Each structure stands twice: as C-alpha cells, then as structure tokens.
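Multidrug efflux SMR transporter structure dump, as promised
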Amino acid sequence: MTWVFLGIAVVFEIVFALGTNATKGFTRLWPSVLTLLAAAGGIYTLSLALRELDVSVGYTIWTGLGGVGTVICGALVFKERITPARLVSFAAIIGGAVLLRLTAV
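structure tokens r here:
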C-alpha cells in the first residue's frame, strides 16, 4: 500500500500545482477550494507513504514525479511547450527517483 499511497500523493500534487494556476491568485472560489483540498490530500497520503518509506526517498519521489506530471499536464491543459532540455530534465528526475528507490536500505 505504501506505493499506492505515494502514487495518490503524486496525483494530488499535480492537481494542486495545476489548480494553483487556475485560482488566479486565489481569487476564484472553486479552483481555490480544489487546490486547497488537493494540497491537504497530497500531504495526508504522503504521510501515509512515509510510515514505510524514508522521508528522503518518499519526498523526493513525490516532488520529482509531481513536477514531471505537472509539466506534462501543463503542456496538455495550458499548451505549455516541452523542449528537448525539459525532456532531458525529466529523464534526470525519473532516473534519480529510480536510483533512490534502488539504493534505499
């Protein structure tokens, strides 16, 4: 269940980041409510995952995959550009997350 909780936390992180953009500075009610709920849900499910994972591994994977997911979804939803440099950066983040998991004691 640890990895399920972490996966759910990553989804919440992506919703939180995209929602923050949609709030327009927290001036729009429903995007603001969604963003705050996503933030709370992400922190809660991350805390459940951290019962079994080291914080250095869990937090890094959460923020790394959340960041990659946010960029991908930002490109799909907000038409943001994904450049070759960004692709290399995504690969480095994913590679780092995998290496952290493989070297976790």
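The helical segments are 2-22, 29-49, 55-78, 84-103.
lmk if u need the other ones
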